[in-house]
Write a structure and sequence with these properties.
mainly alpha, Endonuclease III, domain 1, binds iron/sulfur cluster, elongated, Endonuclease Iii, domain 2, 2 domains, single chain
Length: about 220
């Protein structure tokens, strides 16, 4: 008699989650037609700098700082032409400004030395830059270069766990779990839609399940 082994069961589960993920993304896309990247930028280089600054800081605060910053600093050379103290002062209010200033100057030096001042277009090259982790790299790849990538931030982590799409709190494992159940052409929409949903409805510590458009598909729903 045929025994449905562990692999087969996992596959069946993946099929179910795949269908559920596609349905959820479809509903969220219709619910949030205005969903957009929270950071202001006009070039891949500006998004790279803004994303480095966004660590432990709100997008709103970063946008206030970059409004002035991007007028003063337009290229990697500009960031290297000032002292680290001057750059620290210009980005002070984003927090962790010493680390961020050092990383930005290190990143700019590598961009000039290795990439002719351009932002590279592969995950491997991006995560090798100072101050650039997987989250920043995936954000640049998907947002600027239109390459399929899933950016896992705090909202994606929380919403994915509540939806039962991952058991892990490790960003790289979450990224892999989501990739397994999502067609690659939808990877880029996950971050934008889950962040928007996480900010407006599935709010940390007080999710508004009664107002949630995907409650029917959520195993954590507390809907009355
Ligand atoms: S039903 Fe509740 S827990 Fe589930 S996604 Fe919606 S708001 Fe979040």
């Amino acid at each position: 008699m045929f025994d449905m082994g562990g692999d087969m069961k996992r596959h069946a589960q993946a099929m179910t989650d795949k269908k559920r993920m596609i349905t959820i993304l479809d509903i969220l896309a219709r619910t949030y037609p205005d969903a957009r990247v929270g950071l202001d930028y006009t070039t891949p280089f500006e998004l790279l700098i803004a994303t480095i600054l966004s660590a432990q800081c709100t997008d709103e605060r970063v946008n206030i700082v970059t409004k002035r910053l991007f007028v003063k600093y337009k290229s990697p050379n500009d960031y290297l032409s000032v002292s680290v103290e001057e750059l620290e002062s210009d980005i002070h209010s984003t927090g962790f400004y010493r680390n961020k200033a050092r990383n930005i100057q290190g990143c700019c030096a590598t961009l000039l030395d290795t990439y002719g001042g351009n932002v590279p277009e592969t995950l491997e090259d991006l995560i090798a830059l100072p101050g650039v982790g997987r989250k920043t790299a995936n954000c640049v790849l998907s947002t600027c270069y239109g390459k399929p990538a899933i950016t896992v931030d705090t909202h994606v982590t929380r919403v994915s766990a509540l939806l039962g799409f991952t058991q892990s709190s490790n960003a790289e494992i979450i990224e892999r779990d989501l990739m397994e159940i999502t067609p690659s052409e939808l990877w880029n929409s996950i971050n934008l839609l889950f962040i928007t949903h996480g900010r407006r409805i599935c709010i940390a510590r007080r999710p508004r399940c009664n107002d949630c458009a995907i409650a029917d598909y959520c195993p954590s729903s507390q809907r009355d």
